[in-house]
Amino acid sequence: MSKLFFYTMVGVSLAQAQTSVQATPFTTNEVLASTSDAQQEFALDSIANLHQRNGELYNPQIAACIPGQEDVIFPKQQVWSRVQFSDLENRLDQAKSQHQSRQIQVGADLKRSFNPSNQSRQTAGVMLSIGQTNSTLDSNPSVLPNQNRISPEVQAQQQAVGVYYTHYTLNGEYVNTVAQWSQSTAKTTRDISVGSQKSNTLSASVQWGKPHKIRRSNWLLEPQVQVTVAHTQSQSGTGNASSLAASDLTLLRAKIGGRATWNGDVPELSSRLTIGESDWRPTTFYLAAYIAQDIVVSQASRAQLAAQDIELKQKPWLEWVAGVQQPIREGSYLYGQVVYQKSLSGGARQGLGGNIGLRVNW
Asked: HSE of 336 in the Cβ direction (CA atoms, 13 Å)?
């Protein structure tokens, strides 16, 4: 489970660790639950969704482009980059888990095609991510008092590589698919010593959306559905973390919701042959809301907290999103969003995150 934030990971001093011995009782197996969850959250944040990664890619006012102008509206090349940050906290009866993480992601479209017969588009590309996560567990002393074990602390370096493919129709309907491999090397504080553990995650996602224009206004309503599956395999720990056993965890995450998007004005169809490319690029703002749910498909060698861990993962939560995209120069856009999430069943899950990105077309 996860707590993520944009700033660098918080360090814990030797004196702090020593004073936490009586107040934060955990075994090394419980550290395993934290490292597996941190790795999966990194993988899921890397995949994110289409608009988190790339910004807004559709405007109904320019979708019906005239023949010969496809290269202006749908350029042949596109690269993008974003900084993602997140801060997420989960509370159990026995403990509270926290993760703070950030990552940098870059991507490039390797193939972009336009079909003039039905005005559909296809985009395929590759993306790379590097990130850093700090994970901590704090116990509830009233439940687990006076145990002579210290609070686990996990610092992880993470990287990922993925591919994506998106098909767009003329009316803006799209299907976005992503496949990704990611790896995490975690340094685990145990008995005021450090060992390490490696985890590998294979993940895949399918997202569907279809915008609907609200009469003659600049607003769109877009229902969305996304399903992501992630399988994490953690190796046995090394060094002073050698008591960390190998484990597997397969998770399915489903989201359903929608966006309300406002696009700035662009010229009318009759004037498009005589205008410059900068006039085609509107400012975009959107609000979105989703219901999300994790389903644990399989798990092996999980920790003492696994029963509560899995119970928490089965509980749904809400996500609220606010995003904006602004053209900054010819062929370039600055985009970003803020995400707040809250458990539907009390305060078990709560978090704040977002990203800032740059997309360049030519």
From this structure: 11
Give the contacts of 183 (CB within 8 A, at least 6 positions apart): 158, 159, 160, 198, 199, 200, 201
For 31, the 3-state DSSP assignment is helix
Name which of 330, 326, 333 is nearest 277 in CA terms.
330
| Structure confidence by residue, pLDDT tens digits, 306-340 | 455 555 566 889 999 999 999 888 778 999 999 99
Which pLDDT tens digit goes with each residue over 234-281? 776 555 555 555 567 788 999 999 999 998 876 554 444 444 444 567
Phi and psi of 49, rounded to 5°?
Answer: -140, 175
Q: Which sign, positive or negative, has the C-alpha torsion 203, 49, 252, 301?
A: positive
Max distance between CA atoms of the chain, in angstroms, equals 77
Torsion of CA 260, 262, 263, 265, to 10 degrees: 140
Could you give the CA distance from residue 42 to residue 33 in angstroms, rounded to a whole number? 14
What's the CA gap between 343 and 90, in Å, rounded? Answer: 9
Cβ contact 319:293 at 8 Å: no
Beta-ladder partners of 138: 96
